[in-house]
Amino acid sequence: MPDFISLIVAKYNYWIYITLMMIGLYAMIAKNNLVKKIVGMNIFQTAIILFYVSIGAKKGATIPIIEHGHGEELHGAASHVVHAVDYINPLPHVLMLTAIVVAVATLGVALALAVKVHDKYKTLEEDEILAQLREK
Amino acid sequence: MSEQYPALLVIVPLISAFLISAAGWVNKRLCFPIAVAALSVTVYSSVGLLMRVLDEGVIIYRLGGWPPPWGIAYYVDHLNGLVLAVVALVALLNLIASQKSVAVEFPEKTGPFYTLYVLMVTGLLGIVVTGDAFNLYVLLEIASLTGYGLIAMGEERAPFATLNYVYMGTIGACFYLLGVGYLYIVTGSLNMVDIARILPALYQSKAVLAAFIICMVGLWLKMALFPLHAWLPNAYTFAPSAASSLIAPLVTKVMVYVMIRLILTVFTPKFAFATFAVKDPIVWLAVIAIVMGAIFALAERNLKKMLTYVIIAEVGYMVGGAWLGNRAAMTGAILHIVNDALMTLCIFLVVGNIVYKIKGYAFEDLKGLFRKMPFTMGAFVIGALSIIGVPPTCGFFSKWYLISGAIQAGHYGFMVALLFSSLVNVILFFRVFEISYYEPFSDHHGHGHHAESMAEAPLTMLLPLLIVAVGLVLVGIYTGDIVNQIIRFAIPKGLS
Q1: What is the pTM of this model?
Q2: Which ipTM was obtained for this model?
Q3: Where are the domains positioned within chain B?
């Protein structure tokens, strides 16, 4: 049991992202309302974004901006050697800017489709729509 | 100029998409010529690129001059050179063929339609040309989002079918992204060649295994491999005919290409087939996909929906071929990407022509069509024979390679599934021939005497269709050259 707890505590970021992802997946599978499914989809995407953001982090590191990067050239090379350990990895964060844009676009398209579906069937409950489709 | 082909392939349609969108506000008639011009440039550069690859071997193009592990590199070899040419050609032919039906189906929205169309082609070409795993995700989403838009423009059930596609497609793309994240954690790189260089030392790592499985599941969702196929039939059936004849031939095939690229380049066959011992269960999954696709297709009384199930069976062919893990089957899978794109284009263009003239695609609407639209139905016969796999059409040759690969691997279940699916295809298509050849035309008002008159689709729809139909036979005849000059070099030497 202590092993299990330390496994959770040591890798808590992965546990959080997997929990969030499963909440999203559950909503997409189990919910009957189309907008709730869309919200589930967004939680699912956000979980992956958080996963990427968390893998860039390092203990004791700071934001990846080199302090006094300008105007210090005169002090000799040794004073501004950059240690990668001191800075968090910015690349996953930059990737996620793109993924956030994709998530927003997907959300927009999905909500627009939900509006069209509502115009047509006057409901957003999936079982009622399927019942209407079966009647025809 | 020819050094810039890889960039032109993506940039020209991307910029033209915005031009078309702007031109749509000024004058709707400007949209179509701009789209044709843009896609002609992509055809020219993709064919030029394929020729260069045949001459010089692999081409690496650094976007903005940044060296690979940091910058994005476009990486063109024999495999994606071939797929690029096919994607560009199919997109251009379909664009020309569907001009009339676009003008009829949604006259108000031609501007947005062509914008989405060209953007989607951008996404598909980008997926194929890129050598960067994350860049591939972004282009995948460009192709998917525009695809959702195109499909939703269709019949009245289209938005609901599209919404299901959005859910499934998003899960698929997210899984791929997650897999790339795992790969990034273990290798620290996103460049495919660079990952392949770092990975061999890490083959025993559980994270690499997880990355591989998650990427594969995501791609299977996107390509509609059997248990994950539920979104495809409705989405493709209710899409407008101009969009379904773009999406049906290309999207699933491009996803199969990505799967083969991951197996061959990123993870290498050694990992996929030897270290990671699930090759047989995946081939069995493909067998089930082929059989179930065939059975579902038999149950349909509607031409377009029947064809969507045929696509599901065809996806099974390619996944099975790729996972049999020998040279003949891999050749068959790659050849089938080309052939299936052309065959599917051919029959969906036929459906487009039928919808344009008859306004329906249920089996009852097809009565007497051979007399009414002889050229369209002639092309349909060639496309159908190719899907069944009758020589000299191209479908026979890829099936031949797949079957000989199955025998070589000793996987007789896959061989039987291929033969079973061919027999079912015979039933499927001869049933359509029978209805459209023998049963007299009825226009629902009892005016039987109109039956004799010929009412063929306009020439701009007919000509591209006939080019594709002739192309099916030509590709069949030149299969030997395609395999020996192109596909032979696309498969790494380690695979025997």
Answers
A1: 0.92
A2: 0.90
A3: 278-496
